[in-house]
Amino acid sequence: MQLIEVAIIGGGSTGLMTAYYLAKEGIKNIHVFEEKYLGFGSTGRCAGGIRASFASDVHIKLMKESISKWLSLKEEIIGLDFVQDGYLWLLTTEELVELHKKLSAYQNSLGVPTRMLDRDEIRNLVPIEMNDVIAALYDPMAGKASPLKFLGSVRRRLRELGVAIHEYTPVTEVRVSGGRACSIVLDGGREIRVGGYVVVAAGVWSKDLLEKLGVKIPLKKDPHHLLVTEKYTHFIKPLVIHKETGSYIVQHETGSLLVGAEFPVPEGDETLRYGYLKKAVTIMSRYFPQILGINLLRVWIGYYEVTPDHHPIVGGVPHIENLVTATGFSGHGYMMAPVIGEELKNIILEGKPRIPETKELRLERFEEGKLLKESAIFG
Amino acid sequence: MVKLLCICEEISLEEVQKVIEEEGIKDIETLKRRLRLGMGPCGGRYCISTLLRMYPQLFGTTAREKSDAELRVPPSRPPLKPVPLYIFKER
User: Fold this and answer.
1) At what angle do helices B13-23 and A147-160 cross, to 10 degrees?
2) Hey, is the C-beta of B41 within 8 angstroms of any chain A C-beta?
3) B83 to chain A: which residues are within 8 Å by CB?
4) Entry pTM
5) What's residue A379's pLDDT?
6) Count of domains forming chain B
7) Would you give the DSSP letter of residue A155?
8) What's the confidence (pLDDT) of residue B91?
9) pLDDT above 90 coverage of chain B, percent
């Protein structure tokens, strides 16, 4: 039977970054198993936004570290295109403005340089029809990185580093014996022995694998739509969010625009909804009427894997010494992938993460009722 | 002369051959995301069809012997053809 050192289950951003940081440390015999093509689950479907401007200490501290990693990855991996073009939250009610003033002060206290912009300052930043916008919160540290470029460039780099990438190779089971994950089983029954670690980074599908091992993991699939347009002249640099409705727009380096909107669909019925298109276009065209003449190219659905406290689950699981997981990113997996990949590497090689906040992401918090909280300003 | 395999995204046959060879890409789904082949306005109607015709030359086996699932032909996503966003705007 084949013996491998590290088995990474899931070829999305989290799994790939874990493979990358392990390979950089000189670890050999790393294998990534992906059910379909790389990024099939969530990475290839996401909008590619990256920010540290959150409302919890844990998110902010990890994302600050992740952003510095995105900056170095850009130098380390040819073709990866992280740009710090910022995030802009359009605020349309007085309550939202008050709340975001407090939020900005909180973020500033943790070293995230967000600031409030008035209407003139907003106009200087983006070609916008102001309508009901009163003010905005701006985060100049945030940015975007094309998920497809990320996938292509990281795939190429991992191959150079000698990481084995197995596409179209679903893992159906992890076998545990004597408190150790000793092998994985592929679709079709082939068993591969694992000498070192098993990493479960399979997004929302991690739940199925872990539950087979008796590990309870509180993950819910939350489907979200996204649309992409044809290429258009570059006209909008930051990722812009209409805070009141959660709709957003972002233009990537190719010129394509992605427009998202909150449009809940019941779990299990994930057909594309016309209502989403209507909502996304109606809200965003109020502020950016330029988009009305641009052609829609594609619409799709991707999943957020949501935990009860909207923070991820990172680290070991009870009673299995050499299995680690990273899932439940609740819509932020791609932006967190660099820091989480490195922390999983640290857990594997040094027995513990380097950033104190990573420890707070342990799975046991749910059983113990010690859920993480957003900062007090959100009441 | 440069032979363009994908007109929308201006991807040459040479580029396609290069990434298949150098990066060990074995399926159309990965190729699509790597080069944006089939991601332009034609939605893959022209380039993916051309790619399937050239399959033996590119991948060393004929496409005809394989099922759609084995070929990993990307699914078509709606809309059927590009439409301007204004038709979705609520009036």
Assistant:
1) 50
2) yes
3) 295-296
4) 0.96
5) 44
6) 1
7) H
8) 85
9) 57
